[in-house]
Structures are given as C-alpha cells and as structure tokens.
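Give me structure tokens for this 273-residue protein.
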Amino acid sequence: MDKKVTGVYFSPMGNTKVIVMGLASRVSSLINAKGGCFSINFTPPAIRQKPLAFSTEDIVVFGVPVYAGRVPNVLLKYLNSVQGNGATAIAIVAYGHRAYDDALIELSDILVEQEFKVIGGGAFLVEHSLSRVLAQNRPDASDMAVIDGFANRLAEKLTEKIATGAVDIKGNRPYRSYYAPVNRDGSLVRIKTFKPITNSSCINCKLCAQICPMEAIDLENVARIPGICIKCGACIKKCPVGAKYFDNEVFMAHIREIEEANTIPRKEPEYFV
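Here you go.
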C-alpha cells in the first residue's frame, strides 16, 4: 500500500509514545506501507510552534494523555491548528487507571473537525502521572497484545476487508466537565495551585527544566517554577536523585484516596473500530 504511517504524540513520561508508536509500527507492517513509519513528538513546546499538516496519503496515529478526564486543555490550541486535509487518523488516549471519561471522543471530534477521517480510537492504560501505584509498569505485555489486536482490525479496515463505516466511540456529547477532585469531606482540591518543590539533594543537572513540556521551570534556578505546571510528573519521576516532589498534604492525601479507590480491579484497554 502506497501510504505513510506517522505516530503523533504528546508524552512527557514516554508512555503514550510507547502505545502510539507500537500501534503505528504494527499497522505500517501489516499494510506494507511503502512510505514507511515515522514519529512526531509534540511534547517539546518549540515543536508546538511549528505548523503540522498531512495529506490523503497519510495514516496518522494521534495520541495524548488524559488529564482530568479530558484532552489536556493546554493542548487545544495546537490540536486545533493541525491540518488533516483528508488524512486517515486513529485517536489514542492514555490514562492512569481512574477513567478516561470523554477524552477519547473529544480527541476524535477534534480530529474530524480538522479534516481527518477517523477510522478508530483506543483508550490505553499508563502509569498515572502523580502515582507510582496506579497502573504501575503499564503498558505491559498484556496491553501490547491488545495493541496487536487493534492493529489487526485497523489493517483490515484499511485494506477494506471489513466495513468502513463511521466509528462509534464511547463518550458523551456535550462532554463532561473536567474532573474536579474532592477530598473525603467533599471539599474541593485546588490542584492547579500546587507545584513540585526541590530539596537539597538537587545536583543542578537541569534535566527537569529541559524536559518540562510547558517550560515552566526556571533553567537558572530549577527550584523556581514560575510557569504553568500541568502535573505531568516528568520532573519528579525522571529526576536522577529524587530531588523533586509534592509536599502539600491536602494534595497528597487526595492522591492516596485515588489510589485506594482505583488500584483494583485491573482495568483493561478499550478500542473502537
């Protein structure tokens, strides 16, 4: 097939990338895409300043993490600037074991609005950005097997071995509001105001500032976070000496409550073709 397959993703922790590129490479192989398989990582802010456009010969696996049950609102401006021009798309969202709510149908709708032809969508599990317990070590081998099955169905659709009608993706229109966390007493947890702190073990390697997808961390003084923190967890989980962490007890108590409520039973990926 004279097509090119491209995985496009926002992935501060790298887990959404694993899912998107795993699916993209599998689809590319199954349909024998003559144009090859490529990746576009729009996690770095500078990449989101560049125009992105596709053509009818493109197959695009488009993936974002789920924040508060929706597509991250900080990405909406960029997503609504991408030009599909009739390209084929598969929508992917990655969530940390609480719920993906309306994120998948929202991403699919955005892609359709940008003139992509959406032929499938999937919601996959990844380790939660604020927890080392929720969906720990996922995606795992079982998840990758689901990706293989999803790729097989997509390949059949792309080669017209199965019907190519509209995809019925789970979700609500209008979309549910962004998830508003509350404590056990019902009080609202205002997580937007919380930012990681830096302890004395910091070696000033500046990795946290370099990988922050919002460029929120001061490169000259990494203990300062003057910009918007989206709680992606990258600066905390990727710090080589564990120097960054959240210390607000209200915030951390809420994370523990989410862990208690959502660790078991194990949730499985869902996909729609």
